[in-house]
Amino acid sequence: MSSAPSPKAVVLLSGGLDSTTTLAIAKRNGYVVHALSFRYGQRHAIELEAAQRIAERQGVAEHVIAEIDLGMFGGSALTSADLSVPRDAPTGDRIPVTYVPARNTVFLSFALGWAEVLEADDIFIGVNALDYSGYPDCRPEYLEAFERLANLATKRSTEGGQPLRVRAPLLHLSKREIIELGTRLGVDYALTTSCYDPGPAGDACGHCDACRLRLRGFAEAGLEDPAAYRDRPAVAR
Amino acid sequence: MSSAPSPKAVVLLSGGLDSTTTLAIAKRNGYVVHALSFRYGQRHAIELEAAQRIAERQGVAEHVIAEIDLGMFGGSALTSADLSVPRDAPTGDRIPVTYVPARNTVFLSFALGWAEVLEADDIFIGVNALDYSGYPDCRPEYLEAFERLANLATKRSTEGGQPLRVRAPLLHLSKREIIELGTRLGVDYALTTSCYDPGPAGDACGHCDACRLRLRGFAEAGLEDPAAYRDRPAVAR
């Protein structure tokens, strides 16, 4: 008996909680995973070390780290030494300075190029429309617009073939639901890093937007976050 | 009397005939130009030297060369040493191997990020729907989809403000019309390079798709192409 070959997918992998859960979902759904990370001028490379450990542990077919420089244009606290990461700022009021201009558009564009070369029909991205810090490029209508663009941008659109799909399985999940799902899929969240301002050993600050969303998610799921914190707030806010 | 400041534009500049003409049009229309080029794993860097000379000569506010690696995924004769550039192949039959997967999508994504930081409302790109070698990411519907995406992707979409425009002033012009327009605007085409397979001194091959489209355009305009060719065909085909 012959069986159809497993479909390929490009999975954007930052080394954080969301993208790691997304990778586990792609694996569970039977995809052969080609993981893509970026060295994009972020101030710390700890998340890339995390991505490498996760890619190894989860058994991807291939893991590529693309070198791009998004810092050259400035404009974000995540890539610029001139702007500092806010501590304990109220979330959701406006787009924070940690927003990197056009970051997801750039990341998805590279994923699109790779998907075309691999003849993969699916790109997975771990964006989330609920606990998402208000970034415009995490909204459902943004992802739909990218999928539309992708199907016009590439050879498949003029030579026929399966349309490309941008899959965002976390889009409508809360942080709590993401953590619960990943835990069921066997994700080891100790490997993941979410902090915008980690210490030299990779320990999370406990006070940036990303830490606070993450800690609140674990608290709501009734689970202990296994990541290392240099200052773990007693109550997640 | 006070006057409004000149609007800013990001102009994608490859160093070729089309992008150089596009830059001249943006300048003529009163924009302060921020030119953006890419070192993207192309096999020859001659076009970047051309882009630098053109940016200087045309008086841009700033010229940035972004370092990205599109070659890592393979799949194109322009970035891969394993594939050779075709000579004297019939044009227009199918997408040629010189197509780089998702190239314009990646380039426009970077332009979008820079435009957001600069607070520029316009991105200029020299794509052309007539003499375009059949690349899917040069079609009007592709550019419209990118503009739509751009207006969903960025802060301007959630914080109000002017929509971003993707301007492709050459879209519906023939190569002949582009050359005639650029010549009226004072473009020095001797500075530009179009060849997919140039010699070490930057001399054009005269036989690749790009050379043949260019030579035919000059012939139809009744002008002599001032670029250096190592083998200039007697009759443009």
Protein described:
The structure is a homodimer of 237-residue chains. With 237 residues, the first copy, chain A, is of the alpha/beta class. Chain A has a single domain (8-176), classed as Rossmann fold (3-Layer(aba) Sandwich), CATH 3.40.50. Helices cover 35% and strands 11% of the residues of chain A. Chain A is built from seven helices and five strands. Chain A has helices spanning 17-28, 46-58, 103-118, 140-153, 155-159, 175-184, 209-221; strands at 8-12, 32-39, 62-67, 122-124, 165-167. The first copy, chain A, has a five-stranded parallel sheet, with helices on both faces. In chain A, α1 links the parallel β1 (8-12) and β2 (32-39). In chain A, α6 (175-184) packs across α7 (209-221). Chain A is globular and about 55 Å long. The termini of chain A are far apart. Chains A and B meet through β3, α3, α4 and α5 of A and β3, α3, α4 and α5 of B.
> Strand portion of chain A, in percent?
5-15%
Biggest contact: A-B, 47 and 47 residues
How many individual domains of chain A?
A: 1
Summarize model confidence as the mean pLDDT of chain A. 84
The CATH topology name of chain A reads Rossmann fold
Low-confidence stretches of chain A: 80-86, 89-98
Order of helices and strands of chain A: EHEHEHEHHEHH
Briefly, what CATH class of chain A?
Alpha Beta
